[in-house]
């Protein structure tokens, strides 16, 4: 009988340890969602006030949450709590209607570094890493998420000059993104 009791106690202790390990792994995986891809460096000397306003999506890697959308824009405004209100909007060509998602973003650390976390679904955040930016006029930018499956090219105007777009594509390719899979958005 004492042998069975000790096995039972060890099983409970093991179960508790497994739960703790599971919780730790879950927390680490959530933290990974706000990380920066290896080899990517967020822009320094970032000025949020200059970044606010409307941006047009020039190109993106495909994801289900934007699939089939054209005329995609992102609008960034300040929230009272110091965060950023995010409104992503695009026209669903199949349904012939506008699709809109509202979220919020906060700096991950230093406000002068272009690394934010953005949420469209409650407490779950994902990386928003600005790794290329026209620091002179804030006229175009490239953004990634926690890995190289995410890439957006944004601009203040619906079109970018061909030479600027080519420079950004070369930079994205050099950073390890598969630019052959980019979707160029109809604006």
UniProtKB/TrEMBL annotation:
GO biological process terms on file: response to stress
GO molecular function: lipid binding
Membrane topology per record: Lipid-anchor
SUPFAM superfamilies: Lipocalins (SSF50814)
Localization annotation: Cell outer membrane
GO cellular component: cell outer membrane
Occurrences of domain Lipocalin/cytosolic fatty-acid binding (ranges): 47-187
Superkingdom per UniProt: Bacteria
Keyword annotations: Cell outer membrane, Lipid-binding, Lipoprotein, Membrane, Palmitate, Signal
Lipid-conjugated positions (N-palmitoyl cysteine): 33
Lipidation (S-diacylglycerol cysteine): 33
Pfam families on file: Lipocalin_2
PANTHER family: APOLIPOPROTEIN D
Family the entry assigns: Belongs to the calycin superfamily. Lipocalin family.
Summary of the function given for this chain in its UniProt record: Involved in the storage or transport of lipids necessary for membrane maintenance under stressful conditions. Displays a binding preference for lysophospholipids.
Subunit structure: Homodimer.
Name listed for the protein in its UniProt record: Outer membrane lipoprotein Blc
Gene name of the encoded protein: blc
């Amino acid at each position: 009988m004492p042998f069975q009791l000790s096995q039972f106690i060890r099983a409970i202790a093991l179960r508790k340890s497994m739960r703790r390990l599971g919780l730790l792994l879950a927390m680490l995986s959530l933290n990974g969602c706000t990380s920066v891809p290896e080899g990517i460096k967020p822009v320094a000397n970032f000025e949020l006030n200059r970044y606010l306003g409307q941006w047009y999506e020039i190109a993106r890697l495909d994801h289900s949450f934007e699939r089939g959308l054209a005329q995609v824009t992102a609008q960034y405004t300040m929230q009272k709590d110091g965060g950023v209100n995010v409104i992503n909007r695009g026209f669903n060509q199949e349904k012939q209607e506008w699709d809109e998602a509202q979220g919020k973003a906060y700096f991950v650390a230093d406000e002068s570094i272009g690394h934010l976390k953005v949420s469209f679904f409650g407490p779950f955040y994902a990386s928003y890493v600005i790794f290329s930016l026209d620091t002179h006029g804030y006229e175009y930018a490239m953004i990634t998420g926690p890995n190289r499956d995410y890439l957006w090219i944004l601009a203040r105007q619906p079109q970018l000059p061909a030479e600027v777009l080519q420079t950004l594509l070369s930079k994205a390719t050099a950073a390890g993104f598969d630019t052959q899979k980019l979707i160029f958005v109809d604006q």
